[in-house]
Specification:
About 45% of the residues lie in helices and about 15% in strands. The chain has about 210 residues and is of the alpha+beta class. The chain has 2 domains: about 1-125 and about 195-205, Aminopeptidase, CATH 3.40.630.30; about 140-185, no CATH class. A hairpin with a 2-residue loop joins strand 1 (about 30-40) and strand 2 (about 40-50). It has 7 helices and 4 strands. It has a 4-stranded mixed β-sheet, with helices on both faces. The chain has helices spanning about 1-10, 15-30, 80-95, 105-120, 145-160, 165-190, 200-205, and strands at about 30-40, 40-50, 60-70, 95-100.
Length: about 210
Amino acid sequence: MTKRLHAENGMFKYDDDKVRTLLRRCFSGDKVIVGVIGEPGKIEASTCLGIGDFYYTGDWHLEEFWNFVDAEYRRSKNADALIEFGKSCADKMGIPFFTGIITAKQMMPKVRLYRRRLGPPVGAYFLYGGGLSLPQVRDTIDRGYDDLRKDVADFLAKHGDRTMPHRTVRDDMVPLLREVMTMLKKLAEDDVWCSDVPKEAATKHSEGNGATV
């Protein structure tokens, strides 16, 4: 699983020996916690959390080494369950939980998930070099964006320079404007770094998601 994670998001060369050293720490409980979802022999998702401290303090915190859901299970609630597992570990230990996102795929949906579960971000990652093909803004837009834009352009080309009958406004223009408003709302929501998250959304915990960690 760590190799599949690295294939998606790794920035540097994969070192199998170093990964195995970390896994041995996991299995021996050496300041590392592992959460796993799935049946024996068929892991769906996992997270690895380490106990550490920053260079300027002796206070402990819980930090994420990885948080990964295998491709075939990404329509499940596994990602939510892994985040909640990290939060529950931090609550039981009485220390803060630090986690982040480094990815070249579907960045904005992942950020929205983390904001819903953890609240507003306290910083941001920036990368110079490293070889990751970073997502562009279009990554945040639905596949239907081009179709909708074409529909609007066609409608304006057909009706823009003339008075429209009531039936055209009711049956064609109003539904099209509703689609446009829905798309604009989504684009506003995609601006996750600047928008505020309601307090209840930041503190709400998942219930009954069907996953066991």
